[in-house]
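Students often ask why we bother predicting the structure of a whole assembly rather than each chain alone. The short answer is interfaces. A chain on its own may look different once its partners are present, and contacts between molecules only exist in the joint model. In this exercise we take two input lines together and write out one structure for the complete complex. Read the inputs first and try to guess which parts will touch.
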Amino acid sequence: MMSAQIIDGKAVSAKIRGGLKAQAQELINNGIIPGLATIRVGEDPASKLYLKLKHKACSEVGVYSEDHVLAEDTGEKEVIAQIKKINQDANIHGILLQLPLPKPLDSRDILAEIDPRKDVDGITPTNLGRLVNGSKGFIPATPKGVLRLLDEYGIELEAKKATVIGRSVIVGKPLYLLLLSRNATVTMCHSRTRDVTEHTKDADILVSAVGSPGLVTADMVKEGGVVVDVGTTKTESGLAGDVDFEHVKEKAAYITPVPGGVGPMTISMLVENTVLAAQNSAGF
Amino acid sequence: MMSAQIIDGKAVSAKIRGGLKAQAQELINNGIIPGLATIRVGEDPASKLYLKLKHKACSEVGVYSEDHVLAEDTGEKEVIAQIKKINQDANIHGILLQLPLPKPLDSRDILAEIDPRKDVDGITPTNLGRLVNGSKGFIPATPKGVLRLLDEYGIELEAKKATVIGRSVIVGKPLYLLLLSRNATVTMCHSRTRDVTEHTKDADILVSAVGSPGLVTADMVKEGGVVVDVGTTKTESGLAGDVDFEHVKEKAAYITPVPGGVGPMTISMLVENTVLAAQNSAGF
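Now the answer. The structure tokens for the assembled complex follow.
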């Protein structure tokens, strides 16, 4: 049996960041420094780590970035006031509110205040709605990164059977809409699905975005299928995906590793969206 | 073999309209006449018929309605100017732009101009996005009507397998999101799906929203399943759904007829959304 081709998110990401660097430079040559503002509420260690990686990627590419940190007990009104201030800041083209927010903040109410033109996370109702009706808008970074990886490896989506496990607003649902826009026949499974395997075993493309190590075992995967692992769970032995990589890679045709698969792409797509926002603001 | 229970959209609709009449009266007692404005561009006969039914339903319930008719060759700017004018009209709580628009008008650009608070068709990016992130907003009339019918007949959706055929922005995609929000495992099929039957034959709930008479035959349906027919095609022998009603009703447990199934519900839900918009405007 052949072992799957490993989809190298790190390599694809490096290539993309090279291209973004050139685009950022072109903007800078035209007097526009692309700028990202991140907002963090509270001291969640995972959020801090993700933000560090995001700012590092911005810096590598030549995108200005700043981090706004609010105390754990900040109220909704104050978070919204911060967003509104940055909405008005002409030096900032992209705004990222790092999720999850501490309780009892409702992220939906707060996210809706981000100017859709600066919504580089693609998470405002306006940009999510554009994904539904197929008009131009910002696409959330992780699903955008998944599609880009598949495209880079020449994996055809047209008329393919795709199954997405996990229905989050930031990954599962936008990915479902993107796969549909590429003419895949898409099934979405989630925590209430009776028999997940029934929906995965014939899937040409299987994406798991749950955050549950070992969820996807070899018996759930189609021989010769494509398996994309969006799960990232911190374990004692390091970062773990949803997929039983060692066994699934003996059955699939393509597989993304964790780490080094979708993760680097998420960050690159955020930077790409920021550069795009700067280009839009300049009428490029 | 038992024959399916026929889901009576006309009867459910009549009941709903009775309730809406009372709600409209309560608004009127408080000095607010709920108002709907429809906009039609051009002379499409089907659009004219649908609008006639919508205005008739408003009148029955005690909702004020007015019809704005623009010439076939009206430009995008003029249609948007009309929308903006009605956005400002305090007497109008709901705006419905009748689709399809004549070419070359792009409905997406134009619909995006409707004030989301008056978007009783649930078709602006903002309201579609709210369907994705699960926040409160207007739900498009037809998918809302489908869910209401299923609820009225006590049909459980939790953990059920649902398949939707047809991925329109106004029916298929919102319905997919609604079924998902009710914890169904949902598959969406469309014109590029290789083998539709594979996805329908085990579906507990099957919804067809294509507009292709005879598309859904008995062999495609699960024994004891629920079949909802959203298709409406004008034929020589009258209005036809997508489903081969005579044969499928011998196999399914529940089935909606055409006419008299989803159709009346669509109109009732539009009126309901208008009453809701008037209530929102009054802070009810």
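Check your guess against this: The domain at 32-115 of chain B is CATH 3.40.50.10860 (Rossmann fold).
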